[in-house]
């Protein structure tokens, strides 16, 4: 057992290290994804839109009774700007707008489901 587990260590070589820690490295990309989904209501919104192909703002408000209209609108705009959801305006009166996951949003869902499974397999320790 004298062999080191090298795949768990940060590379020492400058070029290899930049691949992990540099501005276009793994850490930067994972940090970007975590920023995209951070926010109290972003994950509940994403999971609801994963369960339903499209939802109106009023449906989301009913499903998440503790969220305010302002916070819902803010998180929907941020998710839309990050390309995870799409807003569809029907141009009707009264206004009719629906939200749904984009292809990048759908491709993120297996990762979120894996995170859920990780959490189930590794419960919090008391204390």
From TrEMBL:
Q: Alphabetically list the UniProt keywords.
A: DNA-binding, Transcription, Transcription regulation
Annotated HTH hxlR-type domain ranges read 20-127
User: Is Transcription regulation one of the keywords?
Assistant: yes
Q: Which domain of life is it from?
A: Bacteria
Q: Per the record's keyword annotation, is Transcription included, yes or no?
A: yes
InterPro entries from the xrefs?
ArsR-like_HTH (IPR011991), HTH_HxlR (IPR002577), WH-like_DNA-bd_sf (IPR036388), WH_DNA-bd_sf (IPR036390)
What name does the UniProt record give this protein?
Answer: Helix-turn-helix domain-containing protein
